[in-house]
Amino acid sequence: MELNERAELDTSQVNDLGRGGGSGGGGGMGIPIPGGGGRGGLIGIVVTVLIALLGGGFGLNAMTNGEDGGGQSTGKPLQGCDRSNAQRFDDARCRNLLYVNSIQDYWEKEYPELGKGKYEPTSTNYFEAAVNTGCGQADSGVGPFYCPADRKVYIDLSFYNELASRFGAKGEFAAPYVLAHEYGHHIQNLLGTNERAGQGDQSGPRSASVRLELQADCYAGSWAKHATESKDETGQEALFTSITPSDVAEAVQTAEAIGDDTIQQRSGGRINPDQFTHGTSAQRQRWFQQGYDRGDPKACDTFATDQL
Ligand SMILES: [Zn+2]
Asked: 184 CA distance to ligand 1 centroid (A)?
């Protein structure tokens, strides 16, 4: 992939909360780590939290200290990501800002086609170590997530190192895939689709959770298909000048690395489909690819098919 050096980025779409997420840091209750602790189950934890966020099953709201009502902090606008800084794309903060701009530009155009009105943009919050959100307090171990209550995407950018070193998803295109997946959950929130998360089983190969996660992968694919059409803040410049087949392959490889079955195996366990929440590696790859091949979120109805 190539990023357009001339692009003017919209810094209002990302807030930098810094260390401790502006909630005083330290303290807090963090996220309980299932399955014996350690960092081995990183993505498993992501899984747990997303179920919690989408399904309310784990009562994340009960995890706030309550001092500031679990509200989000304001954070600082990103600095140094404007065009005058020729090195800006060496900085992960600026690159990820560009991805967020591109994903939202895509949905500005595409969302109205879904017949539910206008897209409502939302920002991504960068944090380090821990963060206080509308869904409770979280630490970096949870991985990136979307909080439906405050409608924000949260990411500690060091997650990408973890993804590369622990899960072998080294490709640069892993990052925009992850963000596009999280924005997929925002789309589901706007559409009301995520209300289905509370229905039926909380996990399992045909659960609403798996269907929502595969749909978010498919939405990420449909964004990727159109990413080079996305425009910068001025509406004049492209954000990506190119996306190659090897980028798409990197996204697919990332989807493979974070499938439920692969993670269960990696963490030394047996494959247990009853615990699936995001779908298998094969399913995640397939739905990303489906989104990419069709380039249309309407092709992402994971609730309408038995062929997950
Ligand atoms: Zn997800």
From this structure: 8
Radius of gyration of the chain (CA): 18
Side chain identity at 298, as an amino acid letter?
Answer: K
Q: 84 CA distance to ligand 1 centroid (A)?
A: 35
- Cβ 297 vs Cβ 282: under 8 Å: no
The arithmetic mean of pLDDT across residues 87-92, rounded, is: 97
For the chain, percent of residues with pLDDT exceeding 90: 76
Distance (Å) from CA 12 to ligand 1 centroid: 24
**How many Cα neighbours within 13 Å face the side chain of 39?**
10
Residue type, position 59, single letter: G
Strands (E), 230-296: 240-242
Segment 98-114 mean pLDDT? 98
Across the chain, mean pLDDT equals 86
Output the six-digit token pair for 159. 């997650």
Cα 198 to Cα 188: distance, rounded to the nearest angstrom: 13
What global pTM score does this model have?
Answer: 0.86
Whether 102 contacts 240, CB under 8 Å: yes
What are the distances in angstroms from CA 275 to CA 56, 204, 254, 261, 264? 17, 5, 20, 9, 9
Distance (angstroms) between ligand 1 centre and the Cα of 195 equals: 14
Q: Which of 62-66, 131-135, 160-164, 176-180 has the lowest mean pLDDT?
A: 62-66
